[in-house]
Amino acid sequence: MRFVIYGAGAIGATIGAKLHSAGEDVVLIARGKHLDALRRRGLRFQTPAGEETLAIPALASPDEVELDASDVVLLTMKSQDTAAALERLKARAPSDVAIVCAQNGVENERLALRLFPHVYGIPVYLPTQHIEPGVVQAFAAPTPGVVDLGRFPSGVDERAQTIAAALDAAGLASVARVDIMRWKYAKLLANLHNVVEVLFGPGAEGHWAERARAEAIACYRAAAIDFTSQDEIRERRRAMGALQAVDGKPHAGGSSWQSLERGSSTLETDYLNGEIVLLGRLHGVPTPVNEALQEIARRMSRERERPGSVDPESVEAAVRRLALAGAPTGP
């Protein structure tokens, strides 16, 4: 069994590093300056215990690797890049390869299942960071995070058990679950905070995440979507080690904040808060907070604005405008 990590940023490179160090066959697929750095000097993998440089094969695309049915392809790119990545993968991979979506949001598995029959989901609880090309940091120790896995849309098969066992043996807490989408929908609720960090900076304006979450739960109820409770998540997260400083610095921010900090022109907000907006429109539930956060984040990424540069009152004004626009007009 070989693990092909497609989109080897913070999450993908951390999973790849742990599997590689455990003796598994691993290939990383990356791009841009990050790929160049991986090829020149290897992956600099930093944890609270120190730094190691790992010589893991790094490729630019699936075109550079001969895939077969025994391979496990972990999709770890941002959701806005998934459709294009799957198209490239479909041109190279046999149909019975395992596709594992170790990504935020709930749309990736649906996209993958259109092209591949064996799709698995992972709700990723893995506090990592990737700002500098070739460098990835994992902040929880001794266990970097929880990466439980299950077949999409539900169920567990032998391959799911085998993949989860390999991840767990590599030092990442992982079990196979029959109800993986309950966990992914719960993780989506947590990821609604990502855009709040983009707008206001890490650790600021937490009430926006609570307002976004309240809208999301109303949408879940309208759509009859089940999700794991916060108590269940807290209990499972006990398997993850404690957050500690890496290279003398604490974990700064989530994946969306990191994307904007690196100068990315796109964010995954459309597949996080935008998923709630979609559910609201499908089921008649107002979602002006999530829509405002989504709208402003799109502008920030398009115009390459610095994270943390938004005035809260401008967001309130956008919420009021969108709430008014969506209000019933009467007979």
Give me some keywords for this one.
Rossmann fold; 7-stranded mixed sheet; 331 residues; 4-stranded mixed sheet; alpha/beta; globular; 13 strands; 14% strand
Description of the molecule:
By secondary structure, the chain is α/β, with parallel strands linked by helices. It has a single domain, classed as Rossmann fold, CATH 3.40.50.720. It has helices spanning about 10-20, 30-40, 80-90, 110-115, 160-170, 180-190, 195-200, 205-225, 230-235, 255-260, 275-285, 290-300, 310-325, and strands spanning about 1-5, 25-30, 45, 50-55, 60, 70-75, 100, 120, 130, 135-140, 140, 150, 240-245. It has a seven-stranded mixed sheet. α7 crosses α12 (about 290-300), α8 crosses α11 (about 275-285) and α12 packs across α13. The longest helix has 17 residues, at about 205-225. It is globular and about 55 Å long. The mean pLDDT is about 95.
Give the SSE map.
Elements: E1 2-6, H1 10-21, E2 25-29, H2 32-41, E3 43-47, E4 50-54, E5 58-59, E6 72-75, H3 82-90, E7 98-101, H4 108-113, E8 119-121, E9 128-129, E10 135-138, E11 140-141, E12 150-151, H5 158-169, H6 180-191, H7 194-200, H8 207-223, H9 230-237, E13 242-243, H10 255-261, H11 273-283, H12 288-302, H13 312-326
Parallel strand pairs: 1-2, 1-6, 2-5, 3-10, 6-7, 7-8
Antiparallel strand pairs: 3-4, 8-12, 9-10, 11-13
